[in-house]
Amino acid sequence: MEVPGAVLRLGSPPWMARWLESEPQPLPGAWFADETPQTEVEVPAFRMDRFPVTVGRFAAFADATGYLTDAERIGYGMVYGERFWEERRGACWRAPGGPGTDAAERPDHPVVHISWNDAVAYARWAGRRLPTEAEWELAARGVRYRIWPWGDRWVPGAANTAELHAGRLDALDGWLDWWRATCREHGPLPRTTPVGAFSPTGDSAHGCSDMAGNVYEWTASPSRLYADDAPCDPALRRVMGRYRVIRGGSWMNFRYQVRCSERMHGDPGGWSNFALGFRCAAPAREESEPDGTGG
Amino acid sequence: MAKILLPAGWTHGARTEFDVPAGPLMEVIKRFAAAHPAHRRRLLGDDGEPLGYFNVYVDDDPVARPDRAAAEIASDSVVVIVPPLAGG
């Protein structure tokens, strides 16, 4: 999708933290402080893929290059089991829930178990790149601040979040109850959905799909605070400059963690999990250049 | 006493900083989990040993996974534990 250049006030206004604390969700307001204060950035025009990279597209890359992901090389992937996160032997993009699960059965789902290195390698092969976090947020909400890609009112069924599967969730215990029951019945298979399944209702201001939920998405941007003196959880402050920004939340999250300005931070040193994928960006097309990218 | 610092996302608004006795890093984590069982499932595996998935920083320096068994925590050190997916 073509995204015109713009001056963006990246991040959330002060009322967002107060609103989050007033809502029935389990995380403290301080945990969201890294998305404040808003900071003005100039974003040149660019193209953003409409969808996260799918299993099918990643398979084409792996087949063409013989590329092995970090999870394939180390022999395990992070999966949330009935108890907690675990390093499950054999879990990788081809077997997202571990042995016995097969991503080939869902080629139109977003690929998961993708480390930052894996995402960069794919993007380079595809002649593209990872978006910066400012590009990601601009593609998700446009210049005008909005909570979710479609607007400021939560629309059940417009995105793949935990509520889509479990019904209304206000507390972590409810999530754990749902996930344990799901694991017992189906195993720890990620609850991704085909890309574009919530289009057009869930599409963003610039026509991108799956920007709220489905899979977490890597960006190119190193984690940093929007201002040096910005309030920040002391533990989270330790990873600034070390991690890379992740956007969009995933099928594992409540609606509050799939907001357009929500920031997460991921270890780029080979780590991935069964809810983590990516999408690509590219420079803006020259006027005479045909659009053959599918973006 | 040394200190352990946990992410606020793990404590849901409760305190994130705890005093712990100095000693070998792995023992410090195990003793902390024993004293604060609410955090046990995030820190220890079924075998009672510290899990390897989270990152550990001691006084701002990362402690790589292979180095943790030999790491010693001084009484004026701060041990920061951060999962590989943090924030929000």
From TrEMBL, chain A:
Alphabetical list of Gene3D superfamilies matching this protein: paralog of FGE (formylglycine-generating enzyme)
Ranges for domain Sulfatase-modifying factor enzyme-like: 33-281
Superkingdom of the organism of origin: Bacteria
One Pfam short name: FGE-sulfatase
GO MF entry, a single one: formylglycine-generating oxidase activity
Full protein name: Sulphatase-modifying factor protein
Organism in which the protein naturally occurs: Actinomadura logoneensis
Lineage: Bacteria, Bacillati, Actinomycetota, Actinomycetes, Streptosporangiales
